[in-house]
Design brief:
Blueprint lengths: L5 H24 L11 E9 L9 E9 L5 E7 L3 E11 L5 E5 L5 E3 L4 E4 L4 E8 L8 E8 L3 E10 L12 E2 L7
Parallel strand pairs: 1-10
Antiparallel strand pairs: 1-2, 2-7, 2-8, 3-6, 3-9, 4-5, 4-8, 9-10, 10-11
The chain binds copper (II) ion (CU).
């Protein structure tokens, strides 16, 4: 048997590992992370934009909500200890090209069975009204969302300057944020 030069083996090894790395992780991260499948929900890419000062006292939360169940789910309301109230909003551009936001129709966001709804800059978002503190990058705070099927679901929202670049699911807890204490 001919001896294969060691530099060729090194190149082959590099190619194999490089290919493995480029395809595997993104798929894994899209899988729901909840152990025991407590909810038919997978909530990922959660973030709130930092506000160095308490600007007009409001803050915005973005996320992707995936309905992994086989019936429609509806986001009805939310609450957080760091704001007086929460509204479900939509960004729109009016006929004069002016950027506006308004409450979503019916005050609710529907997520069809097996589908995802993205709350992202320029579109749907969760608005925090009358914040009690500024939002510092690196911190996080709890939020409770109320769904028609799943009921109250609580998780932590990380505060960042930039949208997250990776799809990472948050850990969901049943009940309101009061139960975290
Ligand atoms: Cu808004």
């Amino acid at each position: 048997m001919k001896k294969i030069p060691s530099f060729l083996i090194a190149i082959l090894f590099f190619l194999v590992t490089a290919c493995g790395k480029s395809t595997a992780p993104s798929k894994e991260k899209l899988e729901p992370t909840q152990a025991g499948k407590q909810f038919d929900l997978d909530i990922s890419s959660v973030w709130s934009r930092s506000t160095p000062e308490l600007m007009n006292g409001s803050g915005i939360i973005y996320m992707t909500i995936n309905n992994t169940g086989d019936s429609i789910e509806t986001l009805l309301a939310g609450k957080t200890p760091i704001a007086k109230s929460i509204e479900l909003h939509m960004h729109t551009i009016d006929s004069n090209g002016v950027f506006r936001m308004r409450m979503v129709d019916g005050g609710r966001i529907e997520i069809p069975a097996g589908e995802s709804v993205e709350l992202k800059p320029g579109g749907l978002h969760i608005m925090m009204i009358e914040l009690t503190d500024s939002l510092k990058a690196g911190d996080s705070f709890p939020i409770t969302l109320k769904f028609e099927q799943a009921g109250e679901v609580t998780f932590f929202v990380p505060i960042t300057d930039m949208p997250p670049t990776e799809v990472t699911s948050v850990e969901l807890k049943k009940g309101g944020y009061e139960s975290l204490k």
